[in-house]
Amino acid sequence: MKKVIRLIVATLGVFTGIGLFVGFINLLNLIGLISEIQWLQGWMLAGAYFITGAIGGLFFYIMEPRMERGIKKLIANIEGQLSKIPTKDVVFACVGLIVGLVIALLLSTLINQIPIPWLSIPLSILVYLVAGYLGIDIALKRKGDVDNLVSTITGGNRQGGAGRQKPSRQERNIPPKILDTSVIIDGRIYDVAKTGILEGRLIIPEFVLGELRHIADSSDALRRQKGRRGLDILSQMQQELPNVSVSDKDYDNIEVDEKLIRLAQEMKGKLVTNDFNLNKVATVKNVSVININALASAVKTPAMPGENMSTQIIREGKEQGQGLAYLDDGTMIVVDGGSKYIGNTVDITITSVLQTGAGRMIFARVIS
After folding, report:
1. Alpha-carbon distance values, 353 to 320, 348, 358 (Å)
2. Which residues pair with 309 in a beta bridge?
3. Which of 79, 126, 198, 216 is an S-S bond match for 227, by CB 3.0 to 4.6 Å?
4. Residues near 250 by beta carbon (within 8 Å), at least 6 away in sequence
5. d(CA 155, CA 177)
6. Which of 13, 15, 9 is nearest to 68 (CA)?
7. Which residues are 271's β-sheet partners?
8. Are 323 and 345 within 8 A, CB to CB?
9. By the 8 A CB rule, do 184 and 230 touch?
10. Is 218 exposed, middle or buried (0-12, 13-18, 19+ CB in 10 A)?
11. CA distance 30 to 178
């Protein structure tokens, strides 16, 4: 089979060599130098065809292995690049290319009316190239608007499903909530969403799903467990909540946090996260953020200085004599003088409460 392919390539080289020779003759004729080679006729012309064809065939025959490797490498690179591009991007690019070529065809009919071949032909080729490129570029840049239009028409739920009603006009005007990886792995978003507090659509970007799958395939047992937990929570949300949808929107050559911020800006939505750094960066870029930790702190039962309670000292604190305890909601209590009561339940008095972006911390002392 390889020998047959090599002979076919060599034959192609023969015709290529002859074609280049004929093109060279026509070029000389075009610029007015053909008179200098009028002697090239009859058997000499046939000999010229034979020599150029033989040179082309021999060159292609020798270079065939390298050409084959180069073509295979090129195809592999193209396949690798295409595999990274979302299917929706490929569809939009093809549609944009077709529209651009149709426009170029209409323009080329006018350009072909130019009676100067050396001007009309290159100009027509240039129009095709520019129109095709612009068609692809515009289609990819405007696909977000098309997504929003389709989401508005269909109610914004890609999962669809029988029995699910389209949202009202008022619901469509509510900013969508875009979930990041940390808030999905945390899991509390599922319980919060079930209460109905988060109005509007809950958007899960495709690149967040990819990050979750990557974490779920991690060699580290803890990371793998977190990733699988996040995927399980997403599955529950999609099955039980009617307003959960997945966005195929993606961006090249930027990190996931930047992708989330840009998506929130384009969709005019709110970012739902537990990530402290992402929260700060999004706030700087004027993107609204819903922090689940802050929400959890806001609904906790307030603890006032001077209030008494009973708690179990779990372990020692950082400072000498300190003991650490925890409320049922996970709030840490730093108990002064509690180190000697580790493992015991004691009565304490709250001395102060510290509220931070990461949560709440209570300081107390043991009641004598």
Report:
1. 20, 14, 14
2. 348
3. 216
4. 86, 89, 205, 206, 207, 259
5. 15
6. 9
7. 178, 289
8. no
9. yes
10. middle
11. 64
Rounded-to-integer distance, Cα 159 and Cα 244, Å: 8
Distance CA 238, CA 368 (A): 53
Contacts of 289 (CB under 8 A, 6+ apart): 270, 271, 272, 273, 279, 282, 283
| Residue pLDDT tens, the chain, 368 long | 777 888 888 888 888 888 888 777 777 666 665 554 555 566 777 787 888 888 988 888 888 888 888 888 888 888 777 766 777 778 888 888 999 899 989 888 888 787 776 677 788 888 889 988 998 888 877 776 666 565 555 554 444 433 444 555 555 678 889 999 988 998 888 888 888 888 888 899 888 888 888 898 888 888 888 889 889 988 888 888 888 888 888 887 788 889 999 989 888 889 998 888 888 998 898 888 988 877 877 776 667 888 888 889 998 888 888 999 988 767 889 999 888 889 889 999 999 988 766 667 899 999 87
- Cα angle at 72 between 79 and 13, to 5 degrees? 135
Token pair, residue 52, equals 């150029």
Angle between helices 188-195 and 221-240 (to 10 degrees): 10
C-alpha pair distances (Å), 279 with each of 208, 230, 297, 334: 16, 20, 16, 27
* Class level of CATH domain 300-366: mainly beta
Structure tokens at 95: 């549609």
Q: What is the dihedral sign for C-alpha 58, 60, 62, 64? A: negative
Burial (CB count within 10 angstroms: exposed 0-12, middle 13-18, buried 19+), residue 145: exposed
CA 185 to mean position of chain CA atoms: 19
Instruction: Please state the separation of Cα 157 from the chain's center in Å.
Output: 19
State CA 229 to chain mean position distance. Answer: 22
Q: In what order do the strands lie in the sheet with 308-312?
A: 308-312, 345-356, 359-366, 332-336, 323-326, 315-316
Q: Is domain 163-296 given the CATH code 3.40.50.1010 in the classification? A: yes
Nearest alpha carbon to residue 177 among 24, 287, 80: 287
